[in-house]
Amino acid sequence: RGGVFLGTAMPSFWAGLLLMWLFAVKLDLVPTSGMDGPSSVLLPAVTLSLAYIATYTRLIRANMIQNKQENYILYARVRGLPERSIIRHMFKNSLQASLTALGMSLPKLIAGTFVVESIFAWPGIGRLCVAAIFSRDFPVIQAYVLIMAVLFVVGNVLVDILSAAVDPRLRKEF
């Protein structure tokens, strides 16, 4: 099942090059590289987020389909609640799995930016780490690994707090 969607059908470096060709070269809407201003952030951000958008869309869709079969939805329909309100409740209950995935994806997103940093000529932590590996700069490599580990821990703690805020059943566990 080959998809046309950029995030699922091709790697981020190819998606970045295609986006650069379309929006920077052909349409001349954004700069091709460097950090010239707010418009310079647009293409790298879209390139990095394409693969994650597909994942979160599938997760939320699967959870919405699963929640549609739950008793609370049937009860809400029997009570005569508007469909908009029912969908809002289903969506809120479907965000739990996406929040958990988001907590693990953000540090992974930051750690895996080397390719996008290279394509868009951005000085970043990914390029710094690769340069440190080639020059055997162990303190920089250790600092990078420590920063990524702290990001994973902080990301998971924040997701736990957000999950408790979204789902009242989890509040009593804290």
The first-to-last residue Cα distance is: 43 Å
Q: Order of helices and strands, N to C?
A: HHHHHHHH
Number of helices: 8
Low-pLDDT stretches are: 1-7
The share of residues in extended strands comes to under 5%
Mean pLDDT: 84
- Label the structural class: mainly alpha
Query: Would you report the number of β strands?
Result: 0
Q: Helix proportion of residues, in percent? A: over 70%
Overall body shape: flat
User: How can the largest sheet be summarized?
Assistant: none
Rg estimate, integer Å: 21 Å
Features:
single chain; 174 residues; mainly alpha; 8 helices
Could you explain the architecture of this structure?
By secondary structure, this protein is mostly helical. It has helices at 6-9, 12-26, 39-68, 71-79, 83-111, 114-119, 125-134, 138-166. The longest helix has 30 residues, at 39-68. Helix 3 packs across helix 5 (83-111). The N and C termini lie far apart (43 Å).
Provide a concise account of the structure shown.
The protein has 174 residues and is an all-alpha fold.
What's the topology here?
Blueprint: H1 6-9, H2 12-26, H3 39-68, H4 71-79, H5 83-111, H6 114-119, H7 125-134, H8 138-166
Helix pairs in contact: 2-3, 3-5, 5-8, 7-8
